[in-house]
Structure formats: structure tokens, C-alpha cells
Write a structure and sequence with these properties.
Glutaredoxin, Glutaredoxin family protein, alpha+beta, Thioredoxin-like_sf
Length: 79
């Protein structure tokens, strides 16, 4: 399992933007589509309010914004 996990949904534009960002920056990640009930339940246990929802070393980040980008780039520079 990777140290970055993203909860996404196919119809979510921000989820797509996040995945594009990860690919462009060569950041390996595990994707969990919340259309799968198991992954939806995991997201709810994490108190996630929506997608995209990212875990970096199990630290939660909601949405796709500058805070998330900064955390991902910091993660990437350490690996």
C-alpha cells in the first residue's frame, strides 16, 4: 500500500484534477472510488465529508486546493 490514498468519485471534477496532479508529479497513490460501498464506508469512518479526500501518511486532507498540493509536493520531495 502507498503512503498516499485518495478517495474519489468518477463524476467529480476535483477528483480528476487531483489524479492529474498526482500523475504529473509522479506521486504514487492508492485510489479508492467511493462508488464502491466498502470505500464509501471507509471514508465515513474517517469523517470525510466528500471527495476528493486524501490521506498522506494517514493525515487527512479534504478537497483539492493549495494546502493539499503543498502537502503532496512536500511528501514527494521526501520520497
Amino acid at each position: 500500500m502507498n503512503d498516499v490514498t485518495v478517495y474519489t468519485q468518477a463524476r467529480c471534477g476535483y477528483s480528476g484534477q487531483l489524479k492529474d496532479f498526482l500523475k504529473r508529479n509522479h506521486i504514487e497513490y492508492t485510489e479508492k472510488d467511493v462508488s464502491d460501498r466498502k470505500h464509501f464506508d471507509e471514508l465515513m469512518e474517517l469523517k470525510g465529508q466528500g471527495v476528493p479526500f486524501t490521506l498522506i501518511y494517514n493525515k487527512p486532507y479534504a478537497g483539492f486546493n493549495e494546502r493539499v498540493k503543498t502537502a503532496l509536493m512536500s511528501f514527494n520531495s521526501q520520497n
